[in-house]
Amino acid sequence: MTTESRSIVEMITEQHATIRQLFADLEAAAPDERGEAFEPLVRLLAVHETAEEEIVYPIVNQLGDDAKAIVDARKHEEDAAKKALADLEDMDTASAEFAAALALFRGDVQAHASSEEAEILPLLATMDAERLEIIGKWFAAAEAMAPTHAHRMAPESAIGNLIVGPFVSMVDRVRDAIRDAGRR
User: Fold this and answer.
1) CA end-to-end span of the chain, whole Å?
2) CA quadruple 156, 180, 26, 122: dihedral positive or negative?
3) pTM reported for the whole predicted model
4) Could you state, in order of their start, the residue ranges of all structural domains in the chain?
């Protein structure tokens, strides 16, 4: 079995585009269909941010003090986003309150993605192609083991995510399986 290797820069760029599309799909959905449209966005955001915290940010932190300041700012944004996403998950997706909170959240997430594209990805792009593909493989592995929902008390650090993440991920995946089985 052959798997095409992809650069971490390509992976993050593609995921940001997917996140933007998922927001557009969610906002276009009828209120009674928002719940189902919200699920893939929640999952992608949860695994994406966890993998960035475990893999990407520790690597970029090694590129100097300026890089560390950029990472610290992005991690702060992600922590706020986890809390906001967890709050959104607790809301009635058909409500006007959800729609209003979602619009604010979308703006924050898109600003965060734009900042990563302008600051983090150029730092990564200074590395050679082979290293970027290896980081891409690590990133994909981290996503495969990441929690699928936002958690208000989730750690921001790579070590915290590595210690707590697999247990939370198991609970999330069981929760997802039960939800999906209930729909059949």
Assistant:
1) 32
2) positive
3) 0.82
4) 8-183
